[in-house]
């Protein structure tokens, strides 16, 4: 039986700001281990109306981990299309801004890539912000955990075995920085079901060079990438190399914000 995933989302809006102008509309996609509230402050600090979408295997979708199959990109796009049709009265004649963090950059960019098929012509994308975009710097451990038999086995064991968790943490101490180890420990002991499920489930959402080239070619608005020199998970140099190699203009139009903060603090510290 096929799992019926839900499109989990919340709407955040700063109702305190007395502003005669309409709020900017933002579609936001959080990272692993977070929830839709990850973008609440982003709305409160600005005159924004933020539609914050949840990842599969999180919140109401967390029990779907029992279904080990890959989440279908095509099914998710249908959910997004239905959502946009329902919300069209609130979005018409508006420009949408898109922001994604870490794994959430995948659905963010798939939304952008398939935008023309999802929405009426009166809606456009004005701006894209990608914070620690892991899909532009695929980590070899992600590929190991999602595309090899051994990696999948370990991820599944992680969700239930304390002994295996301790083994993985010991290995991580040899491979990653102290900051990265703290995040791994947090994920292992508090959100391992979300981590394993999302890692395996979002393979079909991966953005390849040809996808990125089309996005940079067709996107008329601004694209900003936020990355850190001290991110132990999403390496800045990998992102820069991918962008130079696959952008339609070799990355000349991309705006960069380079931080020194660790991965877990990039979204919390980001401000427009």
Per CATH, the class of the largest domain reads Alpha Beta
pLDDT below 50 for ≥5 consecutive residues: which ranges? Answer: 64-69
CATH topology of the largest domain: Rossmann fold
Share in β-strands: 15-25%
Order of helices and strands: EEHEHEHHEHHHHHHEHEH
* SS-based class: alpha/beta
The CATH H-level homologous superfamily of the largest domain: Alpha/Beta hydrolase fold, catalytic domain
Please state how the strands of the largest beta sheet are arranged side by side: 1-3-2-4-5-6-7
Largest sheet: 7 strands, mixed
Structural domains: how many: 2
- Spatial extent as radius of gyration: 18 Å
> What is the count of helical runs?
12
Helix content: 40-55%
What's the total number of strands?
7
Describe this structure in words.
Helix content is 43%, strand content 16%. It has a 7-stranded mixed beta sheet with strand order 1-3-2-4-5-6-7. 36% of the residues are buried. The protein has helices spanning 40-44, 73-91, 105-113, 115-118, 140-147, 149-158, 162-175, 178-190, 192-201, 209-218, 236-246, 266-269, and strands at residues 9-13, 24-29, 48-53, 95-101, 124-131, 222-228, 255-259. α1 links the parallel β2 (24-29) and β3 (48-53).
What structural keywords apply?
272 residues, Rossmann fold, 2 domains, 7-stranded mixed sheet, 7 strands, 43% helix, globular
Short description:
The chain has helices at 40-44, 73-91, 105-113, 115-118, 140-147, 149-158, 162-175, 178-190, 192-201, 209-218, 236-246, 266-269; strands spanning 9-13, 24-29, 48-53, 95-101, 124-131, 222-228, 255-259. By secondary structure, it is α/β, with parallel strands linked by helices.
């Amino acid at each position: 039986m096929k799992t019926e995933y839900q499109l989990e989302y919340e709407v955040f809006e700063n109702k305190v700001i007395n502003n005669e102008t309409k709020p900017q509309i933002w579609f936001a996609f959080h990272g692993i281990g977070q929830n839709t509230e990850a973008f609440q402050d982003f709305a409160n600090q600005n005159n924004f109306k933020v539609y914050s979408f949840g990842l599969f295997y999180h919140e109401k979708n967390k029990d779907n981990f029992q279904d080990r199959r890959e989440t279908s990109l095509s099914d998710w796009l249908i959910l997004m299309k239905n959502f946009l049709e329902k919300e069209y009265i609130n979005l018409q004649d508006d420009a949408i801004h898109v922001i994604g963090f870490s794994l959430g950059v995948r659905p963010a960019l798939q939304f952008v890539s398939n935008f023309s098929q999802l929405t009426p012509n009166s809606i456009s994308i004005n701006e894209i912000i990608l914070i620690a975009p892991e899909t532009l710097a695929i980590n070899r451990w992600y590929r190991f955990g999602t595309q090899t038999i051994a990696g999948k086995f370990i991820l599944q064991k992680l969700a239930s075995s304390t002994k295996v968790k301790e083994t993985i943490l010991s290995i991580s101490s040899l491979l990653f920085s102290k900051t990265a180890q703290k995040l791994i420990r947090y994920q292992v002991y508090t959100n391992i079901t979300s981590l394993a499920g999302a890692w395996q489930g979002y393979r079909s959402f991966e953005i390849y060079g040809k996808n990125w080239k089309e996005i940079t070619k067709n996107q008329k608005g601004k694209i900003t990438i936020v990355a850190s020199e001290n991110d132990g998970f999403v390496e800045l140099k990998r992102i820069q190399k991918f962008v130079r190699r696959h952008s339609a203009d070799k990355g000349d139009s991309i705006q960069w914000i380079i931080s020194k903060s660790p991965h877990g603090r990039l979204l919390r510290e980001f401000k427009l």
